[in-house]
Each structure stands twice: as C-alpha cells, then as structure tokens.
C-alpha cells in the first residue's frame, strides 16, 4: 500500500510559525515510529497504551506542554497541546488522549485554580508524565447535567466526607489523584452548589475498576471510580468552595478544543488514505476509480472540511490564549468538527468498499472513535442548547 503523504501538513505549514510546525512534525514522526507499527497488535491483543509508550511521551515533554516552566513544564500554550492531538490522533485517538486528557483535564484545573502548594506538589510530576490526575465529572446518573452531581461531599469535623461514583474517567488506570466534582450545597443556586476536591486514588474508600466492553478508544483507560465515605481536608479543595462548576466549565473549554483536534485528525487520516486508495483501485476499463466524479466529490469534501477545521481551530486557540474564548465558541467547533468528520468517514468508507471494514486499513477505527468526539467533553445535543441560549434570550434566560 502506498505510504501516506499528509495533506494536513500543507495547511499547518501555512498556519504555523516554523518552530511550532517543527514541533508538530516531531510528534508526527514519533507517531509514525512508535504508534503506527504497534497499533494493530495492541488492538488485537486488547492492550491499553503500554507503559513504555507513555514513558517515551513523558520523555518528549508531551505531558507538560502548557505547564509553566517554573513547575517543570514546557511553558507552551494550548496550541501546542492541540498540535500534539493532531499529530498523534492521526493514527490513534487512544494514544493522543492519554497525554491530552492528562493535560487538558488533569493538570489544567490545578493550573487555573490550584493553590501555590497544590501546584508545587503536583505539577512537576504531572509535567514529566510521572503522575496523572483523572477528571471526575461524569456519573452513572449524571452526564450533561453537570450542575447537579450525585456524588456528595458532606462537611465533617476534620474536613469533608465524599460518597458516590464517577465513571467514563479517562486515564483512571494510571492516575495518582482524581479531581472530584461533588455536591456541597444542595440548596444553593444552580452553578453554585458543587465543589472540586483533589483526592488521592490510594485514599481509604477509593476503588477503581476498568470499564469493560468499550468498543471505542480501545487503548485508552476508561475507569469507574467509587468513593465510600472518603475523608479529605479543606486543603484538598480546588478553586473556591461551592465554585466547582466554574472549575469544570473553564477546564472543559480547552478540552473541547482538544477533542475537536481529534476529529480533525481523523479527517486528515481519511483524506490521505482515501486519496491514495482511489488512485490505486482499478475497476471498469482497467482504470482507477478516482476518475469518477462521485469519488472525487468525497475527496474534495474531506479536504474542504480539513482546511476549514484547522483554520477555525487555530483562530479559536488564539482567542483561548488571550482569555477571550467563550464557552459557546468552544462548543461550536467541537460540535461542527465531530459531526462533519463522522459524516465524511462514512462516505470515505463507502467509496473504498469492503476493505474499509478491515482494522489494518484504519478507517473503521477512526469511524468508531469519532463517536467519542460527539459525546465527550459534553454531548453535542446538550451543547447545542448551550450555544442556542444567547441566541434566544427571551425563552432560555432561566437555564444555566
């Protein structure tokens, strides 16, 4: 099969400065060398991302990209994190989300809201990839309704007692701590009822189990974490008391940009795979199927969506770095990129035919993994209401 040449590189070369583009290329080369040759074996043997691969990403500094240099990080921006997502997500969302979630969801709450002592205690090890923090938001009975967690933290003489369960927690297997979003003031106004706590995974009463049967992001650890009267002190609070929703919302803003980058990475892979295949696949009069306009239409749509998604993402990342990115903007790019990529992956598979169902061809992997980009970091359906809210203030002003 023809070696893929990345169309995405053409667009990124126009959008980035030389230093950022060189960084992206270095991570892409790592993906070619470390992920592509091993991915099928990991999948067929039902393995999570191996520890040695995680260690190599740590050595590259991928877990510390946006963490300040004073805390052992690379001192970069969220753009660097998204470039990593594009480079690694091209082959595997599972691999990309491992440092991606560890950074955009794990260390980000401490960066944004942590105390000086919390940052000093955790960020250096997080930046080096020696430690991960898992983001505890989703619950068996709560997903999109993030203002009303079922996990509760009750004030005690020595601090707080946490009870309940979190699920769909990325990187749970490797996590040393979990940021737990818990209800602390049931009678408070919406958005001011919860608090975030930083809880050690080895604390008494904390249990973790890998969620079985998952058919997407199959090399990524996805865990269920239970809290049976877990005792923590006031010094474990991340952000303000009863300000947990703000911690979650601001963290997810950047996380949605990263998830959008995974959708765009799938578009990039599909475009390269399809454009190569339709020039090689011979049918009808001993000619390649790429000569048919309906096939060309799919290649065109993939290319158009790729350029649009990249341009939009880079623009929003500039706003994010300036602190002016709104929740609605982050939600819109995540919704649009994930939906468009999902639709076009089906078209790409159709024109390739039966070979598209084979794991070694790669398209079925991206097709399946794209489902997570539609529901992760906020379900698209729920986020649409959030985006519509400022457009319909007369009827939606009473909603959070």
Description of the structure:
- The protein has 400 residues and is α+β, with helices and mostly antiparallel strands.
- The protein has three domains: 8-132, Butyryl-Coa Dehydrogenase, subunit A, domain 1; 134-242, Butyryl-CoA Dehydrogenase, subunit A, domain 2, CATH 2.40.110; 246-393, Butyryl-CoA Dehydrogenase, subunit A, domain 3 (Up-down Bundle), CATH 1.20.140.10.
- It has helices at residues 8-15, 18-35, 39-44, 51-59, 78-89, 93-113, 116-128, 244-280, 293-322, 327-352, 363-375, 380-388, 393-396; strands at residues 133-136, 152-155, 160-170, 177-183, 194-200, 206-210, 222-232, 237-238, 282-283, 287-288.
- Helix 8 (244-280) packs parallel to helix 10, helix 8 (244-280) runs antiparallel to helix 11 and helix 10 (327-352) runs antiparallel to helix 11.
- The radius of gyration is 21 Å and the shape is globular.
CATH level-4 homologous superfamily of the largest domain: Butyryl-CoA Dehydrogenase, subunit A, domain 3
Count of alpha and pi helical runs = 13
What class would the helix/strand composition place it in?
Answer: alpha+beta
Helical content class: 40-55%
Shape: globular
Query: What is the terminal-to-terminal distance?
Result: 52 Å
**Unreliable residue runs:** none
User: How can the largest sheet be summarized?
Assistant: 4 strands, mixed
Strand order of the largest sheet: 1-4-5-8
**Strand portion:** 5-15%
Provide the CATH topology of the largest domain. Answer: Butyryl-CoA Dehydrogenase, subunit A, domain 3
Number of domains: 3
Order of helices and strands: HHHHHHHEEEEEEEEHEEHHHHH
> For this structure, what is the CATH class of the largest domain?
Mainly Alpha
The average pLDDT score comes to 95
**Second CATH tier, the architecture of the largest domain:** Up-down Bundle
Radius of gyration: 21 Å
Tell me the total number of β-strands: 10
